[in-house]
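Researcher: Before we compare anything, I want clean individual predictions. No alignment, no superposition, just each chain on its own. First chain goes here; please echo the sequence and then give the structure tokens.
Model: Echoing the first chain and its structure:
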Amino acid sequence: MRTLMQKFILGIALFTTGLAANAAEWVLDPGLSQVIFEYSYGTDPYQGRFSNVQANFDIDPMSPTSCKFDVTINIEDIEVDSPEVLDYLLDYELFDVDTWPTATFTAEKCRLTGVNTFEADGTLTIRDETNPMTFPFELNIDTCDGQVCFNLTSEVELLRLEYGVGQGYWANTAEVPNEVIVKVDVYAMLQ
């Protein structure tokens, strides 16, 4: 109950200060944030982590639908449990990091779908494939080390073959399904 009251008071403070009247820039805190991907090979589930993600968010608390996202993921910094799996992921038949070292997501607008839930309409680029994407997320104002921050969480399903992640042998979905789940739990600090 105390935490809920603190968040409520913090929210009121944000909305009554000059910060709330204009779009504010928020920068991802990599130490508090994580982007996980889950996939399966055969019948076994696996997961990995994108450990090098940079993101800027422009969000006006008084007009959250005018949000702007600019996210870059350095693919070569993937973390997985096996060096062999890492080699496969970085290879030309999957992410091909020598040619396309980053993935990007950009969005120019959001829709409010609930009290603190939104959808961002944007584009996701992986390898040389860019596709429109609706990114659902929950956004909560918080404090991080005594500083105003927000926590953005999401879970989305991507079809890897739509982004060219699966050439040659890896185009076969019998062993590695097309569906990949991406889980986002990031914190961003007000700049």
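Researcher: Okay. Second chain, same rules.
Model: Second chain and its structure:
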Amino acid sequence: MQAVVGVSRLGQRLTSRSRWQEARAFDWSRTCRLLFVFCAAALATACASLPSQGERPVSVAIEGSSGTSLGRIALASAPERDLSGFRLMPSGAFALSARMELARRAEKSLDVQYFLIRHDATGKAMLRALRDAALRGVRVRLLLDDLYTSGQDELLSGLAAHENVEVRLFNPFPTRGGLLSRFALSLPNVERLNHRMHNKLFIADGAMAVTGGRNVADEYFSRHPLANFIDLDLFVSGAVVPELGRLFDLYWNSALAYPLGSVVPPRLTRPELRAGFEEVSRPSAPPVTHEPDTRDVLGYRPIEEELDAGTLDLIWDYAEASADMPSKGEAPPPGLEEASIASNRVRVSVVEHMREAKSEVMLVSPYFVPGRSGMDLIKDLRSREVKVGVLTNSLASTDQPLVHSGYRRYRRSLLELGVDVYELSPIKAGREGRGLLFGKSVGGLHSKAIVFDNLEVFIGSMNFDPRSDHYNTEIGLFIHSPRLTLQVARLARLAQRQASHRLQLTAGGALEWITPGGADDEVHTKEPEAKLWMRYLLELLAPLAPEGML
């Protein structure tokens, strides 16, 4: 049952928000179908193996220099060589256009690493931008986790058929069929099935980068017609970019990164593959554009305007990049058990920063399941009178109901400890937050950030849950900047105030959700905005969800 629940979560996590409410029953039925397929596979003891990787050349990042226009702008913008420059990108449109502009202006290299690139308007636009860069002579390295590549072999093979492009798949499945057959044939190796690369990174010319919480799909950039995520990215320049490049190289050259051709042997000639790519990647939506004088909620102009001007309006300070080892989650050799701790760098670093907090820790995590170790950490913080706040998804906003069941086990204990707990309200966010901050048709929270003492902030791909702790590899930045930290805190508090329910306990110990409404707050005694059948179904299935797999 653990394997089934774990796979169910993997298969559901990035389901479009347009289906969260209307067809959530499909998610549960898929769990049942997975159970059936897994049982059949277990009886047949079917097992497929990965092919040899063949020739697998080692390559490294190209460091930024004055030899490219992006490198010259980065050097001209930096007040000191050992500082890094940052800019928050809460706007989906700004975050997408930043990536597209970097791809358009790159002259030497593009290093791109993602958990998911969906075959939709946004994903196709991104892959075409990479292809166009390669046609200009730019070296393109695309590293993609294999979990959500089902049905994309033609698209990816067509991209890889272009000169200057290399595509690698992280921890690929041995079969190239649909999602169900992939899972079924991987049953004998559940640990490998659960080990995914959750990193998100985009580096241009070794000079500028984008990282944060967003995958590449319409719903992460406010382009989905029905529902979109609230998310957060960072535009990065300066001293920390070479660190990010080395972390990319660590994954690119790892034994888990398979050249696409070794997993998907080409059946067509390279010209035929390129022609196929042109056809299947044909634009299905207009490009991202900005109205003149457009600014985001923080007052920034689009990145392309600053690049045109030759200087970047960034916050400059010190930072460290952190990423898990690619082999995270694998059993270490006998006598090297400490390697499992070293491989979990991001979570360990986050915990260390939390332990050092003296006044406040604010956690923003769409999937928040603290577990025993997390609760012990929070208890220690509260015993020292450190204020702790949490912003996460409500049952109505989450795309992962089973994960929500893991989180709700801790709600009462968190409130009893004096933790400020807020849950996103999709209705309130869509009604009051539409526009600069939340975008249109808000579905759920996907931002990942942690504020320490209003002096330092972590922004990256890590959720505060067991899956990020044990199975997914993650990446993030620890930034020592009070100014940037206060911007993150401001965005979080804005979401709490304008788009969330505040949780509290009554004198009798009952749970209440308080929805601010001006003069009169609205009080709920049940999960607000969640459908009745979902609440009942979760009551039935929650006890069956093993926390370690959430």
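Researcher: What stands out in the second chain?
Model: The first helix runs from residue 2 to 12. Additionally, The mean pLDDT is 87.
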